[in-house]
Amino acid sequence: MKQANDLKALLVSIDRKGYPAYKETRGIYQFEGYQLSIDHVQGDPFASPSNVSIYIKEKDGGFPEEYRKKKETKIALEDYILRKFAFLLEKYHFKAKGSGKSGLISTSKCGQEILERTACHIKKDTGDMIVRLEIGFPANGRTVNSRELIKIFFDFLPDCVEKSLFYKSHKEDEVREIIELAEDQQYMREQLKELGLCAFVADGSILPRESGVSSKPMRGAVPFASPQSMRVVLNLPHRGKITGMGMKKGIVLIIGGGYHGKSTLLRALELGVYNHRKGDGREYVVTDETAVKLRAEDSRSIAGVDISMFINHLPNKKNTLSFYTKDASGSTSQAANTVEAMEAGSALFLIDEDTSATNFMIRDELMQRVVKNNKEPITPFISRVGTLYEKFGISSIIVAGSSGAYFHVADQIIQLDCYEPFDVTEAAKKEAKQFPIVADLDNHCEKPEFHRCPKPNMALKKADRVKVKVMGRNSIQIDKENVELRYVEQLVDGEQLAALAYLLKYAQLKIMDGKKTLSQVVNELEMIMEKKGMEALSDASYLPMALARPRIQEVFACLNRYRGWPME
Ligand code: ADP
Ligand code: MG
């Protein structure tokens, strides 16, 4: 094993040489208490920064073994360590000087959600830890300035490592609190199942965010207070008794005037599939972890989806048992989103009227009189929502501000009044009796067929190198084919998109064969991430991008939005 001093000597010897001399530094070096691995060296000071990782053996790191035994506490610990490390790095960002990206030091930025990330990974069995970061190797023009890199490797980095990657540098209580919150959150998720709930929103939760571009909690917000009739008491292992609103499985409606907080509550439920960090305001909001937000998504592509439970007899005679389009309408896109979510194993649909196709949701009486049912290809969601629950066990939580039609089918109706929820089920049902519904509510249907067996894109298979690119939180590109993910609203981090890009590539190059069903393909991807970690998705010897783990539902969503499938 090369020693830290070898690296220093090497760096001294290449000072003022041409930039490619940095390539020689690739390798692993023993520092005090950790190994520094230079995995990939950038080609020039303006290119993407170099990839560096730090290995810490379990005996040196010293974090209690029990903390990594359970998945949720291990992820919470990794998240905690990474946040600390990232915070410390900030102080040194661009402190080393030079041209282009010289002196850049960064790692993943964690948001409000706690995600499994490649930037900090503790091995479950051994407890060894790897932390990944990017460093812009300093240059003057295109000439190596290794004196500045020596500062980074021998002053800056050791300081950050020492203060964050060893257990002894943390307050024990602080770490324990993180672990206990994760255990409480996991307990709440288990309780949902025990109590027949699809979501729980704790009293005192802060749901609204600071602004449209900040996911920090709003200051001065009205704290959540559950209506008495829906109040549930949970006894958390650490925090103890906690009360909140239990949303029962079945069909739940959220109503109320404009600006009274409906979409804010729904958004909190959408993100309740993730655990939130302490102080977020939503750390005790949990939703069935398979929940999927359904919305209209005009212009998305659809490849071979059986949308016949919602759409039939299209005027162009297109087959809706296996529907293809490169440019879906509002209603067909929402129908496909719904059926695909069923395929992805979702047990809870979340729908906001604001982002739905009206004709997908309802058809009013007057319209039915004028446009006869046999001229309307759409069976609206209201006619299926009951069957979805009774036959397939899928609950729905629906925000409705303008149509009372769903009163007839809802099991629970919550009205938000100045951000405070009231149980108005009885009153609303009573009123609804005076407005008999004309929609066919007893409209039973068969489960859609899910036997698509995707084939890989051959152009991709033949290519020497398949390039993937991530455009922030919005889309990914694989071999120049764009996959639009902006409207997959439960993706919260660009690193999840990076992981999806890798998954899409991996699935095509290594799994899909035209015989395995889409579900089998996604299951295999899950197994790889679970058993070998997300690192296994990269064919390079290192990870060029930081990845965060998406849920299985978003893996389906990504594969479903790819436009590069060979057409039948
Ligand atoms: P709706 O969907 O009912 O029209 P929104 O959920 O969009 O309403 O909320 C309207 C506004 O009120 C938003 O700016 C939101 O941030 C704010 N808001 C939501 N909930 C609260 C709350 N509990 N306290 C204070 N402001 C809130
Ligand atoms: Mg709204």
Rg, rounded, reads 26 Å
Mean pLDDT: 95
Q: Ranges with pLDDT <50 over ≥5 residues?
A: none
Contiguous helical run count: 15
- Into which percentage range does the β-strand content fall? 15-25%
Oligomer: single chain
Q: Tell me the distance between the termini.
A: 54 Å
Question: Outline of this structure?
Answer:
The protein has 568 residues and is of the alpha+beta class.
Strand-helix topology:
Elements lengths: L1 E2 H11 L12 E5 L2 E7 L9 E7 L1 H4 L9 H20 L14 E2 L6 E2 L5 E3 L6 E7 L3 E2 L2 E2 L1 H19 L7 H24 L1 E6 L6 E3 L2 E4 L13 E6 L3 E9 L2 E6 L5 H10 L3 E2 L8 E3 L4 E3 L7 E4 L17 E3 L4 H14 L4 E5 L5 H4 L3 H6 L10 H12 L2 E5 L12 E6 L2 E4 L1 H9 L24 H5 L5 E4 L3 E4 L2 E4 L9 H18 L6 H14 L20 H10 L7
Parallel strand pairs: 1-2, 16-23, 16-24, 19-22, 22-23
Antiparallel strand pairs: 2-3, 3-4, 4-8, 5-8, 6-17, 7-8, 9-10, 11-15, 11-18, 12-13, 14-15, 20-21, 24-25, 26-27, 27-28
This protein binds adenosine-5'-diphosphate (ADP) and magnesium ion (MG).
Adenosine-5'-diphosphate (ADP) binds next to helix 6.
